[in-house]
Predict the 3D structure of the following.
Amino acid sequence: MAEASQPIGIFDSGIGGLTVAHAIRQRMPNESLLYFGDTAHLPYGDKSEAAIQAYSIKIADVLLRRNCKVIVIACNSASSAAYDLLREYVHGAVEVINVIDPMVELVTRDFANRKVGLIGTKRTIQSGIYARKLEERNSGVTLISLPTPLLVPMIEEGFFDNRISHDIIHSYLNDPRLAPIEALVLGCTHYPLIRKEIDAFFSGRIPILDSSEVVAEALWNYLSSAQLLNPETRGTDHFLVSDFTESFEASTRLFFTEAVHLEKYPLWG
Ligand code: DGL
């Protein structure tokens, strides 16, 4: 049985999921975080479903061994490839929360029968998971999806708010298929870092939907209903990475708004 004082486990292919970790920290300041960034295997967006499933299971093992009370998949690529499998794997030991369902619920509630754009990695877009889940809910949403694979390496390399990011973002978003959209879903946990630029592209005309806050809210709802919210002051946070570089550590501040210390934790011995 999970207990309220145990940490929240969160994972991503790298440090992009720290945008979700940050939203969780804002929403639930009492909670201890155990973050795992699979930097040795990043990016997930170009990997096969089988590879992402294997990495995700290994990471879930680490999070469970380190006593997490819940697992948050803070990555769209892993949520699309490994969520169902991970749920089966943990077999009810802990709840697993993904970043796609809370967003699909928001879109169904606020944009039913409208045209909505989605940008994400190749893995997420090719999986068709957002369209499938929107259809299952009879949302009537027409989803227009576009893979934008250059955005993750661009952000990881620190290219944003500059001419290069401006040109790449504009060349993707100028796609005529996106012209009729009434909202845009950021289907990748790296993209909040370029949200302002995306907003500027649309001159603020349409809402740009970022999942970090809705995921934090969904997590709060779950912890609250399971009576697992930590009433005490939090313990120490840990940020594990399967491969350590100083540049990853330096970039954490961009995603988490404060610098964090990364601990190396190889996935395979
Ligand atoms: N942050 C991951 C996501 O939300 C993408 C990064 C990657 O491709 O590894 O899909």
